[in-house]
């Protein structure tokens, strides 16, 4: 009988040891999942607004000698809703009412890519989309995500924003720096974006590589070229 009690006790102990951590992780997930989703949603909306240079409310704060910026989440969501129109492919080049989200009106099996459009005073300012791809840059085992924005002509970059990456801090991680990202403003997409090193980028489709991060720079070029090509090939009226 005592032996049987020991077996039952061990079984219960094992169950508790395995159950409690799993239960703890489950509780943490339910509490953090909405916050993580909100964080990425706000980050994406900020990227879109920043590319189109649409201002939103920020507050500068100081703590223990450090200065940091706090973003007003509600204001970002409201400004985004009032200014940005979202569609899913095939993209309509017609001017739609501001703040319209037509993604639910289209077929769910197109490509799932959301297209962000900004119309100001009746004039289309540009279109952009978020692309995530595996195997670009130095860390080829991780996913990189960019917001890529095009001018209305469809052949000129309005800008890029890095949403997610796993590149080495201080090297490939410098793709998030404004100095690097600003290079792409106004660059021509045809025939393709080209990285240059050991000389200054001068061509309409060239950009300077990050020193010590050639693979990451090449990855960014390949990422943009592939993403834009796929984007335009997905449009019915436009061929690449």
UniProtKB/TrEMBL annotation:
Keywords: Electron transport, Flavoprotein, FMN, Membrane, Phosphoprotein, Transmembrane, Transmembrane helix, Transport
GO molecular-function terms, A-Z: electron transfer activity; FMN binding
Coiled-coil boundaries: none
TM region(s), chain numbering: 12-31
Cross-referenced InterPro entries: FMN-bd, Ion_transpt_RnfG/RsxG
Domain FMN-binding: 137-231
Entry-linked Pfam families: FMN_bind
UniProt-listed GO biological process terms: electron transport chain
Superkingdom of origin organism: Bacteria
GO CC, any one term: plasma membrane
Keyword Transport: yes
Name listed for the protein in its UniProt record: Na+-translocating NADH-quinone reductase subunit C
Organism listed in the record: Candidatus Jettenia caeni
